[in-house]
Amino acid sequence: MLAPFNLPEGIVLLITDELAAPADFLLHRSLISHIKETNGPTKTIVLSVSEDLARWKAVASKFNLNISHQITNGSLEFIDVMKHVQPDFRALAPLETADLHTPLPLRPLFDLVQGALHKADHGDAKLVILDDIATLEWIGFSLLDVSRFARALWGACLKAKATLIIRHHVVTSGDPDDLFRHLLQMCIYHIDVRPLASGRSGAVSGEVALHLGPSTPVGGGVKLIPRSAAVQYKLADNGPVFFQRGTGGGVL
Protein backbone atom coordinates (compact mmCIF):
# COMPACT_ATOMS: atom_id res chain seq x y z
CA MET A 1 0.00 0.00 0.00
CA LEU A 2 1.08 3.55 -0.77
CA ALA A 3 4.17 3.13 -2.95
CA PRO A 4 7.06 3.73 -2.53
CA PHE A 5 6.52 3.05 1.20
CA ASN A 6 4.86 -0.34 0.57
CA LEU A 7 2.96 -0.52 3.83
CA PRO A 8 0.84 -3.54 4.77
CA GLU A 9 -2.95 -3.50 4.75
CA GLY A 10 -5.04 -3.46 7.91
CA ILE A 11 -2.89 -0.94 9.78
CA VAL A 12 -3.45 2.41 11.46
CA LEU A 13 -1.41 4.99 9.58
CA LEU A 14 -0.93 8.48 10.99
CA ILE A 15 0.06 11.13 8.45
CA THR A 16 1.23 14.48 9.80
CA ASP A 17 1.93 17.56 7.75
CA GLU A 18 2.46 21.29 7.99
CA LEU A 19 0.93 24.29 6.26
CA ALA A 20 3.93 24.70 3.96
CA ALA A 21 3.86 21.01 2.96
CA PRO A 22 0.30 19.63 2.98
CA ALA A 23 -0.01 15.85 2.70
CA ASP A 24 -3.28 15.67 0.80
CA PHE A 25 -1.38 14.12 -2.14
CA LEU A 26 -0.77 11.03 0.02
CA LEU A 27 -4.45 10.73 0.89
CA HIS A 28 -5.49 10.96 -2.75
CA ARG A 29 -2.74 8.53 -3.73
CA SER A 30 -3.97 6.08 -1.07
CA LEU A 31 -7.55 6.26 -2.31
CA ILE A 32 -6.63 5.86 -5.97
CA SER A 33 -4.20 2.99 -5.45
CA HIS A 34 -6.62 1.19 -3.13
CA ILE A 35 -9.35 1.23 -5.75
CA LYS A 36 -7.27 0.68 -8.88
CA GLU A 37 -4.53 -1.66 -7.67
CA THR A 38 -6.29 -3.95 -5.18
CA ASN A 39 -7.06 -7.43 -6.47
CA GLY A 40 -10.74 -8.03 -5.81
CA PRO A 41 -13.59 -5.85 -4.54
CA THR A 42 -12.90 -2.83 -2.37
CA LYS A 43 -14.75 -0.63 0.11
CA THR A 44 -13.52 2.90 0.79
CA ILE A 45 -14.91 5.38 3.32
CA VAL A 46 -13.68 8.97 3.23
CA LEU A 47 -14.48 11.26 6.16
CA SER A 48 -13.63 14.74 4.95
CA VAL A 49 -13.59 17.73 7.25
CA SER A 50 -11.96 20.30 4.97
CA GLU A 51 -12.02 19.20 1.32
CA ASP A 52 -15.33 18.85 -0.47
CA LEU A 53 -16.31 16.03 -2.80
CA ALA A 54 -15.57 18.13 -5.90
CA ARG A 55 -11.89 18.28 -4.95
CA TRP A 56 -11.65 14.49 -4.52
CA LYS A 57 -13.38 13.99 -7.85
CA ALA A 58 -11.07 16.44 -9.64
CA VAL A 59 -7.89 14.77 -8.40
CA ALA A 60 -9.16 11.25 -9.10
CA SER A 61 -10.19 12.20 -12.64
CA LYS A 62 -6.56 12.97 -13.48
CA PHE A 63 -5.87 9.27 -12.89
CA ASN A 64 -8.89 8.06 -14.87
CA LEU A 65 -10.86 7.22 -11.74
CA ASN A 66 -14.54 8.11 -11.73
CA ILE A 67 -15.46 8.86 -8.12
CA SER A 68 -19.14 9.33 -8.99
CA HIS A 69 -19.25 5.81 -10.38
CA GLN A 70 -17.59 4.43 -7.26
CA ILE A 71 -20.19 6.17 -5.08
CA THR A 72 -23.06 4.94 -7.24
CA ASN A 73 -21.98 1.30 -7.11
CA GLY A 74 -21.46 1.51 -3.34
CA SER A 75 -17.72 0.82 -3.28
CA LEU A 76 -17.00 4.32 -1.98
CA GLU A 77 -18.82 6.34 0.66
CA PHE A 78 -17.95 10.01 1.01
CA ILE A 79 -18.98 11.55 4.33
CA ASP A 80 -18.95 15.34 4.61
CA VAL A 81 -18.23 15.51 8.33
CA MET A 82 -19.69 18.95 9.02
CA LYS A 83 -23.06 17.95 7.59
CA HIS A 84 -23.45 15.35 10.33
CA VAL A 85 -21.89 16.75 13.51
CA GLN A 86 -21.44 20.11 15.21
CA PRO A 87 -19.41 20.92 18.32
CA ASP A 88 -21.17 21.32 21.66
CA PHE A 89 -19.80 24.41 23.38
CA ARG A 90 -21.33 23.64 26.75
CA ALA A 91 -18.98 22.80 29.61
CA LEU A 92 -17.51 19.31 29.25
CA ALA A 93 -16.02 16.96 31.81
CA PRO A 94 -12.22 17.04 31.91
CA LEU A 95 -10.42 14.07 30.39
CA GLU A 96 -9.44 12.54 33.71
CA THR A 97 -13.02 12.57 35.10
CA ALA A 98 -14.90 11.52 31.96
CA ASP A 99 -16.53 8.09 31.94
CA LEU A 100 -18.46 5.90 29.52
CA HIS A 101 -21.63 7.87 30.20
CA THR A 102 -20.17 11.18 28.99
CA PRO A 103 -22.09 12.34 25.86
CA LEU A 104 -20.29 11.70 22.57
CA PRO A 105 -20.89 14.59 20.13
CA LEU A 106 -19.07 12.66 17.39
CA ARG A 107 -21.13 9.48 17.87
CA PRO A 108 -23.32 10.13 14.79
CA LEU A 109 -20.18 10.19 12.68
CA PHE A 110 -18.91 6.96 14.17
CA ASP A 111 -22.28 5.30 13.56
CA LEU A 112 -22.07 6.24 9.87
CA VAL A 113 -18.63 4.66 9.54
CA GLN A 114 -19.60 1.54 11.45
CA GLY A 115 -22.72 1.14 9.32
CA ALA A 116 -20.69 1.49 6.13
CA LEU A 117 -18.18 -1.11 7.33
CA HIS A 118 -20.99 -3.51 8.21
CA LYS A 119 -22.45 -3.13 4.70
CA ALA A 120 -19.16 -4.17 3.10
CA ASP A 121 -18.80 -7.79 2.09
CA HIS A 122 -16.53 -9.91 4.25
CA GLY A 123 -13.91 -10.31 1.53
CA ASP A 124 -13.73 -6.63 0.54
CA ALA A 125 -10.44 -4.79 1.03
CA LYS A 126 -11.48 -1.90 3.28
CA LEU A 127 -9.93 1.54 3.65
CA VAL A 128 -11.07 4.39 5.93
CA ILE A 129 -9.56 7.86 5.49
CA LEU A 130 -10.09 10.64 8.04
CA ASP A 131 -9.02 14.03 6.68
CA ASP A 132 -8.29 15.91 8.80
CA ILE A 133 -8.67 15.27 12.51
CA ALA A 134 -6.94 18.44 13.75
CA THR A 135 -9.68 20.64 12.31
CA LEU A 136 -12.26 18.90 14.48
CA GLU A 137 -10.47 20.22 17.55
CA TRP A 138 -9.88 23.64 16.01
CA ILE A 139 -13.59 24.20 15.33
CA GLY A 140 -14.65 23.39 18.87
CA PHE A 141 -14.73 19.67 19.59
CA SER A 142 -12.84 18.93 22.79
CA LEU A 143 -9.65 16.92 22.92
CA LEU A 144 -11.63 14.29 24.82
CA ASP A 145 -14.28 14.06 22.09
CA VAL A 146 -11.76 13.84 19.27
CA SER A 147 -9.43 11.36 20.94
CA ARG A 148 -12.32 9.09 21.95
CA PHE A 149 -13.69 9.24 18.42
CA ALA A 150 -10.28 8.31 16.99
CA ARG A 151 -10.03 5.32 19.33
CA ALA A 152 -13.56 4.19 18.53
CA LEU A 153 -12.76 4.46 14.82
CA TRP A 154 -9.58 2.45 15.39
CA GLY A 155 -11.55 -0.27 17.17
CA ALA A 156 -14.16 -0.47 14.41
CA CYS A 157 -11.49 -0.70 11.71
CA LEU A 158 -9.58 -3.33 13.66
CA LYS A 159 -12.71 -5.44 13.97
CA ALA A 160 -13.51 -5.04 10.27
CA LYS A 161 -9.89 -5.65 9.22
CA ALA A 162 -9.84 -2.25 7.55
CA THR A 163 -6.90 0.07 6.99
CA LEU A 164 -7.30 3.39 8.80
CA ILE A 165 -5.46 6.51 7.62
CA ILE A 166 -5.68 9.66 9.74
CA ARG A 167 -4.21 13.01 8.73
CA HIS A 168 -3.23 15.44 11.47
CA HIS A 169 -2.01 18.98 10.83
CA VAL A 170 0.96 20.07 12.94
CA VAL A 171 0.80 23.75 13.81
CA THR A 172 4.29 24.18 15.25
CA SER A 173 7.08 21.91 14.05
CA GLY A 174 8.90 20.26 16.94
CA ASP A 175 6.13 21.08 19.41
CA PRO A 176 3.64 18.19 19.32
CA ASP A 177 0.18 18.84 20.70
CA ASP A 178 -1.86 16.58 22.97
CA LEU A 179 -3.98 15.21 20.12
CA PHE A 180 -0.86 14.20 18.22
CA ARG A 181 0.39 12.32 21.28
CA HIS A 182 -2.92 10.41 21.49
CA LEU A 183 -2.79 9.52 17.79
CA LEU A 184 0.84 8.48 17.94
CA GLN A 185 0.05 5.91 20.63
CA MET A 186 -2.57 4.36 18.32
CA CYS A 187 -0.69 4.21 15.04
CA ILE A 188 1.30 1.33 13.59
CA TYR A 189 3.23 3.61 11.23
CA HIS A 190 3.67 7.37 11.10
CA ILE A 191 4.41 9.28 7.89
CA ASP A 192 5.77 12.75 8.61
CA VAL A 193 5.59 15.26 5.75
CA ARG A 194 7.55 18.48 6.17
CA PRO A 195 8.78 21.38 4.04
CA LEU A 196 12.49 21.70 3.35
CA ALA A 197 14.37 23.13 6.30
CA SER A 198 16.25 25.36 3.85
CA GLY A 199 13.03 26.90 2.56
CA ARG A 200 11.11 26.62 -0.69
CA SER A 201 12.62 25.10 -3.79
CA GLY A 202 11.28 24.91 -7.31
CA ALA A 203 12.70 21.42 -7.71
CA VAL A 204 11.54 19.96 -4.38
CA SER A 205 8.10 20.28 -2.76
CA GLY A 206 9.04 18.75 0.59
CA GLU A 207 10.33 15.63 2.30
CA VAL A 208 8.83 12.55 3.91
CA ALA A 209 9.97 10.33 6.78
CA LEU A 210 8.43 7.02 7.84
CA HIS A 211 8.51 5.91 11.48
CA LEU A 212 7.19 3.03 13.53
CA GLY A 213 4.47 3.73 16.04
CA PRO A 214 5.82 3.62 19.62
CA SER A 215 4.09 0.30 20.37
CA THR A 216 4.89 -1.41 17.07
CA PRO A 217 7.47 -4.22 17.12
CA VAL A 218 10.49 -3.71 14.90
CA GLY A 219 10.36 -5.73 11.68
CA GLY A 220 7.53 -6.52 9.31
CA GLY A 221 9.46 -6.01 6.09
CA VAL A 222 8.80 -2.25 5.87
CA LYS A 223 11.85 -0.09 5.25
CA LEU A 224 11.69 2.83 7.66
CA ILE A 225 12.89 6.30 6.66
CA PRO A 226 14.40 8.33 9.50
CA ARG A 227 14.12 12.11 9.45
CA SER A 228 17.87 12.35 8.89
CA ALA A 229 17.46 10.46 5.59
CA ALA A 230 14.01 11.73 4.58
CA VAL A 231 12.86 11.08 1.02
CA GLN A 232 12.20 14.22 -1.00
CA TYR A 233 9.28 14.67 -3.37
CA LYS A 234 8.14 16.95 -6.15
CA LEU A 235 4.45 17.40 -6.91
CA ALA A 236 3.75 17.04 -10.62
CA ASP A 237 0.56 16.96 -12.70
CA ASN A 238 0.56 13.16 -12.65
CA GLY A 239 1.19 12.92 -8.91
CA PRO A 240 4.20 13.03 -6.59
CA VAL A 241 7.67 11.97 -7.70
CA PHE A 242 9.89 10.66 -4.88
CA PHE A 243 13.68 10.70 -4.85
CA GLN A 244 16.60 10.49 -2.46
CA ARG A 245 18.40 13.60 -1.32
CA GLY A 246 21.15 14.67 -3.69
CA THR A 247 20.07 12.43 -6.56
CA GLY A 248 18.87 15.24 -8.79
CA GLY A 249 15.34 13.90 -8.93
CA GLY A 250 16.13 10.23 -9.47
CA VAL A 251 12.79 8.47 -9.12
CA LEU A 252 12.31 5.83 -6.42
TrEMBL record:
<dbReference type="Pfam" id="PF09807">
    <property type="entry name" value="ELP6"/>
</dbReference>
<comment type="pathway">
    <text>tRNA modification; 5-methoxycarbonylmethyl-2-thiouridine-tRNA biosynthesis.</text>
</comment>
<protein>
    <recommendedName>
        <fullName>Elongator complex protein 5</fullName>
    </recommendedName>
</protein>
<dbReference type="InterPro" id="IPR027417">
    <property type="entry name" value="P-loop_NTPase"/>
</dbReference>
<dbReference type="InterPro" id="IPR018627">
    <property type="entry name" value="ELP6"/>
</dbReference>
<dbReference type="GO" id="GO:0033588">
    <property type="term" value="C:elongator holoenzyme complex"/>
</dbReference>
<comment type="similarity">
    <text>Belongs to the ELP6 family.</text>
</comment>
<dbReference type="GO" id="GO:0002098">
    <property type="term" value="P:tRNA wobble uridine modification"/>
</dbReference>
